[in-house]
Amino acid sequence: TPTAPTTTDNCAGIVTGTPNLSFPITTQGVTVVTWTFSDGNGNSTTANQSVTVDDTTKPTLTSIAARNENLGASCSFAIPDYTSLTNAADNCTPTGSIIKTQLPVSGTLISGHNTSQLVTITANDGNGNTESTTFTITLKDVTAPTTPTLTAINVGQCSGTPTAPTTTDNCAGIVTGT
């Protein structure tokens, strides 16, 4: 919002300009304001003033702490939309207009026990300013291997070494007993 300029008139003295538009100016870029100066006696003049609005401030974005995600029976994990866990604000752009994006995108499958994936959330204020936050998700296998059914074996008179039994795990596949 520019301050109204003044000029002088030989009869009216100091005359304050009247703008051709309403303030504040919220459109990015250059806006030309035409000021009209009237002396109250039917005489007027105009002058143009360029007003530049340039948002150079990055939006603010809350960070997300590292996350542990439990694997299901399939041992893969579809990355959810984590953008809802962040709040973004900007000095010029209304909060609802800030665009938040995520990489890797929601729905990307990752798999593997104790696998980690870096996720980046970026807020864009629409005026060329961005801010990002990153966090790591780690996949945790929380399902125990199946319990095998073992039978008694006779390995010898004085000593013996039994064959190690195996079972299955939802993520690791075949697991050998120790």
Polypeptide structure, described:
The relative contact order is 0.16. This protein has strands at residues 6-9, 13-16, 18-19, 29-38, 44-53, 60-61, 67-70, 76-78, 88-89, 99-103, 109-111, 116-124, 130-140, 166-169, 173-176. It contains no helices and 15 strands. The protein has a four-stranded mixed beta sheet with strand order 7-13-12-10, with no helix packed on it. It is mostly beta strands and 178 residues long. Strand 1 (6-9) and strand 2 form a beta hairpin. It is 0% helix and 43% strand. The mean pLDDT is 90.
Set out the fold topology:
Elements: E1 6-9, E2 13-16, E3 18-19, E4 29-38, E5 44-53, E6 60-61, E7 67-70, E8 76-78, E9 88-89, E10 99-103, E11 109-111, E12 116-124, E13 130-140, E14 166-169, E15 173-176
Parallel strand pairs: 7-13
Antiparallel strand pairs: 1-2, 3-4, 4-5, 6-9, 8-11, 10-12, 12-13, 14-15
